[in-house]
Amino acid sequence: MRMIPEAIDQIIHHLITQNYLNETRFAQAFARGKFRTKKWGRNRIVRELKFRDISKYNITLALKEISETDYQKTFHELAEKRLRQLENETNLQKKKKKLADYLFYRGWEPNLVWDKVTEVVKSEE
């Protein structure tokens, strides 16, 4: 905006003191929003917050915004939805890989993903 440095400093100071610029609030809103709307897992949320240079402390606070029951419920709903999309896949190995790749891309933890994949294998046999 071609402002003098003193004006920039004064505006930024005002925004911080009035709580318009707040890293904690941003991180918490980001985590809640991406989890609810895009169904991202914790790994993806952490990766995106680190990319935005958010502190480790604020990332930890942001992850506390997601309840464990909602997290598990969302994971299972997302996995079941993807499995319904893969119904026509006859090759079990390809089906497992597509499911795992999809869930990993969305940032879900490996232990959850592999448990779901083994569950699929047992149901297919």
How would you describe what is shown here?
The longest helix has 18 residues, at 68-85. α5 crosses α6. Helices cover 75% and strands 0% of the residues. It is elongated, with a radius of gyration of 20 Å. It is mainly alpha-helical. It folds into 2 domains: 5-63, no CATH class; 68-124. The mean pLDDT is 92.
Number of domains: 2
Proportion in helices: over 70%
- Describe the largest sheet: none
Beta percentage is: under 5%
Q: Between the first and last Cα atoms, what is the distance in angstroms?
A: 64 Å
Rg, Å, rounded: 20 Å
Unreliable sequence segments: none
Shape: elongated
Put simply, the count of helices is 7
Quick one: how many beta strands? 0
What is this structure, in a nutshell?
With 125 residues, this protein is an all-alpha fold.
Question: How are the SSEs placed, and which strands pair?
Answer:
Elements lengths: L4 H13 L5 H16 L3 H10 L4 H8 L4 H18 L6 H14 L4 H15 L1
Helix pairs in contact: 2-3, 2-4, 5-6, 6-7
Q: Can you tag this structure with a few keywords?
A:
125 residues, mainly alpha, 0% strand
